[in-house]
Write a structure and sequence with these properties.
homodimer; alpha/beta; 434 Repressor (Amino-terminal Domain); Rossmann fold; 3 domains; 6-stranded parallel sheet; 6-stranded mixed sheet; DNA-binding transcription factor activity (chains A, B); transcription (chains A, B); Lambda_DNA-bd_dom_sf (chains A, B); DNA-binding (chains A, B)
Chain lengths: 336, 336
């Protein structure tokens, strides 16, 4: 079956319609991702046949909104966040390989701007959306309702289980805890931004749960920090850790940028990193090896995201339920 | 006159054609940036009248290639270079304010990919191009020949004096020399990538010229480094500086990423930065204040680029000769 799917046969909409006992236009709608107008049983049957025959819709008829634009819009919260830039770069390359052109839109993590870009892109006939760290918003809810082709990245859809590419953030937090336990940490803390996204919450909770489960009597302190970005939030949260004597012996920073913020706060207080306090980040920023050799980090394989995002997008556009793709993170130790 | 230009009057193509004594279609072509089919004298006369009356072409007729797409393509060499990300972020915001949508394309600094994107974007009816650190390529030469609306950023056009937004790179190098002289440097070096762009060459030459002019008998050593990016090139060039005793007492790094590369090479040799060797970068990367507190840098105002790029693009699209816009750089000292 898998081999058949990989080598699509010369099957038409009409063949699938005949097999399913439904109209050609019903198959067309389902193949193009519009799942609302047919019954769940019909959708399920048609999707199964599409998968079985490896049918892929005629590109010219592919877009719901007229013609083939070959444009895909990526909406991301902050282009100048290195993690976002890494996801954008790998997705751009993968889309180009697949014959698409990526339009990149910076939502600044704001629902209003996300809505503005969703509207603008829709009116420009994009064939699909990649939403990195999406926030809940009116237009997004409408797009999900229309079954527009969307792949969510980093943060899951706020409107239920749709296509998602990311890592197991809870597990990443747990792995960070295992590392700090192996380093001998006994009085750890976790810092995070005041506005807690689902991604960050999972990392922090996974860390705390694992650390406390493996270390009887230990209690992980939590500190949140304000700021327009993770650098500021890390600095602000670390500034709340107290005087030099009160500092924890290890800190989970749920992003490397937060660890950079913590580093500055530590320097200002005479807390030596990593001698007095061992931080662990999550991201695996490429700059760590160059100018932050004090930082171990759970590395997220952002450069692998692009190819998986494009796979999911292709699946979603043919009406398949692609579900979640969780990529492997791995611990990258600081140079010893 | 300036006030008139800022408050456009209700002037038509026909008014300008009558004043200039040419046909309406000639004015239309010139207003839309197609300057090849009229004589230089006519172009000059019509452009002067357009500027004087503040005429701006009807948006619907604006694109040479049919219809109004409101799409602008930015081609940049590397999205994961923080300087590129900063330029992209500020340009995206300025274009959005002006009612445009930016398509971002990563050329990876390769002529073939630059050509592929120029073709692809042209076929998608973009209304203008922003070329960041462009390289010479066949399609670019053709686009310049057609007088397509293009603004060059960071690196000037390889095909003569067109619209450009950047800094005075020679002066930035000279200012870096003044700083190191003030720090007491006597045996300086300059590092740079093996492939020397015009931007980097100007910075390095401006540095050497100023240092040697102000310090009788001094000779600035030059070291080039290989690598796919400035981190690697900085590391590789610094590795050629010799043993700890041979290291210079100060180094010009023509980008902050090169300084990060140098920092790692110095650490591996026991050269203390900045005690044994004072580096100075050019960029003003926002991360310096957080995790590279040893680095002073000539800061390039990337966040101001966007608004100026959009101004130039508007000018170019109305056929104006906007020339060069040089923004002010400034020295940002490391925390003392």
């Amino acid at each position: 079956m898998n081999d058949r799917r990989r080598e699509p046969q010369n099957v038409s909409l009409a063949d699938i319609a005949a097999k399913a006992g439904v109209s050609v236009s019903t198959v067309s709608r389902i193949a193009n991702g519009a799942l609302r107008r047919a019954s769940p049983a019909t959708v399920e049957k048609v999707q199964r046949l599409i998968a079985e025959f490896g049918y892929s819709p005629n590109p010219v008829g592919r877009s719901l909104r007229g013609g083939e634009s070959r444009l895909i819009a990526m909406l991301a919260p902050n282009l100048d966040n290195p993690a976002m830039a890494a996801i954008a770069a790998s997705t751009e390359a993968a889309l180009r390989d697949a014959g698409y052109v990526m339009i990149l839109c910076d939502t600044h993590d704001e629902p209003d701007l996300q809505d503005e870009y969703l509207r603008a892109m829709r009116s420009r006939f994009v064939e699909g959306f990649v939403l990195v760290s999406a926030v809940a918003s009116r237009e997004l809810e409408a797009a999900v309702g229309r079954a527009d082709p969307i792949v969510f990245v980093n943060r899951r859809s706020p409107y239920g289980g749709l296509a998602f590419v990311g890592i197991d953030n809870r597990q990443a937090g747990a792995d960070a805890a295992d590392h700090l336990i192996a380093c001998g940490a006994r009085r750890p803390a976790a810092v995070h931004p005041e506005d807690l996204s689902l991604t960050i919450r999972d990392r922090v909770e996974g860390f705390i749960e694992r650390f406390e489960a493996r270390t009887p009597g230990a209690r992980v302190r939590r500190f949140s920090g304000a700021g327009k970005n993770h650098l500021d939030a890390g600095y602000s949260a670390a500034s709340a850790l107290g005087g030099k004597e009160d500092w924890p012996d290890a800190v989970l920073c749920p992003s490397d940028l937060m660890a950079y913020g913590l580093y500055k706060a530590a320097s200002e207080r005479g807390v030596r990193i990593p001698d007095d306090c061992i931080p662990i980040g999550i991201d695996g920023n490429a700059l760590n090896a160059w100018i932050a050799p004090w930082l171990s980090s759970v590395s997220v394989p952002y450069s692998d995201f692009g190819a998986r995002i494009v796979d999911c997008l292709k699946g979603v556009k043919t009406g398949l339920d692609v579900g979640e793709v969780l990529l492997e993170h791995r611990l990258v130790l600081k140079p010893s």
